Amino acid sequence: MTETTPVPSRLALLFKARREELQLTQEDVASRVTALLPPSKRLTQQSYAAFEKGKSQTSRHAIAIAQALNLPPDVLSDQWRHSPQNIESLANAKLIAEPILIWDEKTPLADEVEVPLLKEVELSNGSGRTALQEHGKVKLGISKTTLQEMGVDPANIICASVTGNSMEPVIPDGNTVGIDKGKTSVRDGDLFALRHNNQLRVRMLYRLPIGGLRMRSFNRDEHPDEEYSDERIKAENIEILGRVFWYSVLR
């Protein structure tokens, strides 16, 4: 019986190319991914190697692998292509070499950073509408050194809780995102947090040739692309809060 040669998936080839670009071993990647997972879960070097070689066509840890390699989240979408803009985005990306977590106020951290946390709060007038308000502060498990390497000023960071399934499976309902308010200029395909009529939205953004924006979700089956002209952006009070520079993936 003839053996079939394994064929790596598009994502496996991308992960391998990125790993080699960063001069990481498969064991390095497995260790970084394990650091991002809950204590009861881990990714072994053998499992990661099988995925890279095509012996396994899927990986339940694909989100964490992309995060460990500091790849933009839209690489997980089948629509992602090696366009010049995407290649430039990968070339400019910096490696995050430590786990990124939200800690409670009692957690002692060296070189800690405390930032505001935004949440949607239902208004008390019975209208069912919500307002985006600061809801205390949280401490990030990211050192100031790492933030500096990423080009993120701690003074520009806010965190927010994501609601809904529009960004599944990359950012599940209830997860937290870190937002860099210092970066609001749109780069096609990058991930941004927006205030839309006082509601929080996280979307991939694309500039339209005639002006305005296209908003894209990961869950495009239930949340198709939306296009907004400059006039509609103004009328619906759409404001780019900043670039999402990390997101939690624990469920």
UniProtKB/TrEMBL annotation:
The keyword Protein biosynthesis does not apply. SMART domains: HTH_XRE. The keyword Transport does not apply. GO terms for molecular function: DNA binding. Keywords: DNA-binding, Transcription, Transcription regulation. Pfam families: HTH_3 (PF01381), Peptidase_S24 (PF00717). It comes from Pseudomonas weihenstephanensis. This is HTH cro/C1-type domain-containing protein. Residues 15-76 form the HTH cro/C1-type domain. It comes from the Bacteria.
